[in-house]
Structure formats: structure tokens, C-alpha cells
Specification:
heterodimer, A: 112 residues, mainly beta, five-stranded antiparallel sheet, B: 115 residues, seven-stranded mixed sheet, four-stranded antiparallel sheet, 11 strands
């Protein structure tokens, strides 16, 4: 069963506009969430995280929102830049082991 | 330290052969994780070490797979009698242990192709 789901395989936005990537999870025991970005032929790169005691975390152009009641999180990138074009994965962390459970990924294309 | 490194970056092998991959984590990180990623999917957890102790193995890790971290530094992942279904990207990640330190830092991966 897929405990972390990214239902949109791809997203295309214009440079300078907002990109919104969505993620849903099923296990209410998850209490820490992360977003990673992946370029081809590279490993995932950590972007931003959020603990379940918060509903928002911001780092520069990146903001993650968490809605615990809906078991939903989203990553906002504003303004989007062509260099943001990559595959974005959301992940939930098992607090005891630290292992990550990933979604399937969303491919973001930012057009100049 | 420049980050997590993995060797080799690519490996092509024939079905039935054994392969071994190496991961060197960030030096002060005592947790090390192995994941496998297939096309169109996110990485899937395989196993993890805290220092030299292997603490959890996924059911994805069949008897043909073995991982070690003998001195709590680098780790190796061996696949015996490879099958075509083993073709994937094998990713290694490391993190410091401790409350709140849950971000993992990934290496570039080893892409395995079994022909």
C-alpha cells in the first residue's frame, strides 16, 4: 500500500509564477515530513522539512504547508525559476528509525 | 567532506552474477540507509545501520541481498545471483542520529543494469 502519494505525475508553470506540489499520506502516526528535489543522474537533494507541530515552514522561495486533519502537505515555490525544473519527492519519516517513505514524485517543468 | 559518495556509478552485469556496491557517508553521520529506486517510483527503503549495527531490513531485501558496515564508516551492499528485476538505482543516504535530525543526505546512486 502506498502510504505517501503524489497524485500529479507532472506540473508545468511559467517562470515567475507559483508552483504548488501536493502530497497526501495515510498514516496518522507520521509526524515529520520532507521534500526532496532530484535532477537526472543525481541523488535526491534535501529541500525543506516540517514537523507535525507546525502547519507552515518557510525557507526563501520554498514554503511547505501541512494540514494534519486532511493528511495533506504542499510545497509552494515562488517565484518559480527554470532551474527549479526537476522531480520533487515528498517523504514521511519514521521517527524511531529515521527511514523515509517516499511518494512517487512530481516532475516540475518551469518554462522561461 | 564533500558529501555522500557511491561507487561505482554504473554497473552492467549478466544475470546470475554477483555485484557489490560501496557507500561512503558523511564522516560524522552515524546512520546510513540504503534505498532502491525504479523508474517512475520514489526511493524505497531497503535497510539501515546505526554505526555498525544493522537495525532494520525491508521485506524487499531478499536472501540474495546482504549489507554490511563493518567499522561504522563505509557500507557495502552485495547482490548475489542477480536477476533482471534487480535492475534499479541503488541510493545510499546518511544522517546524524538524534531528535530532530531527520534529514538524510543522499549520494549520487549506483545504477545497476542486469542483462
Amino acid at each position: 500500500d502506498q502510504q505517501v502519494k503524489q497524485n500529479s505525475p507532472s506540473l508545468s508553470v511559467q517562470e515567475g509564477r507559483i508552483s504548488i506540489l501536493n502530497c497526501d499520506y495515510t498514516n496518522s502516526m507520521f509526524d515529520y515530513f520532507l521534500w526532496y528535489k532530484k535532477y537526472p543522474a543525481e541523488g535526491p537533494t534535501f529541500l525543506i522539512s516540517i514537523s507535525s507541530i507546525k502547519d507552515k515552514n518557510e525557507d526563501g522561495r520554498f514554503t511547505v504547508f501541512l494540514n494534519k486533519s486532511a493528511k495533506h502537505l504542499s510545497l509552494h515555490i515562488v517565484p518559480s525559476q527554470p532551474g527549479d525544473s526537476a522531480v520533487y519527492f515528498c517523504a514521511a519519516s519514521d521517527r524511531n528509525t529515521g527511514k523515509l517513505i517516499f511518494g512517487q514524485g512530481t516532475t516540475l517543468q518551469v518554462k522561461p | 567532506d564533500t558529501g555522500v559518495s557511491q561507487d561505482p556509478r554504473h554497473k552492467i552485469t549478466k544475470r546470475g552474477q554477483n555485484v557489490t556496491f560501496r557507500c561512503d557517508p558523511i564522516s560524522e553521520h552515524n546512520r546510513l540507509y540504503w534505498y532502491r529506486q525504479t523508474l517512475g517510483q520514489g526511493p524505497e527503503f531497503l535497510t539501515y545501520f546505526q554505526n555498525e549495527a544493522q537495525l532494520e531490513k525491508s521485506r524487499l531485501l531478499s536472501d540474495r541481498f546482504s549489507a554490511e558496515r563493518p567499522k561504522g564508516s563505509f557500507s557495502t551492499l552485495e547482490i548475489q545471483r542477480t536477476e533482471q528485476g534487480d535492475s534499479a538505482m541503488y541510493l545510499c543516504a546518511s544522517s546524524p542520529a538524534g531528535m530532530g535530525l531527520l534529514e538524510q543526505y543522499f549520494g549520487p546512486g549506483t545504477r545497476l543494469t542486469v542483462t
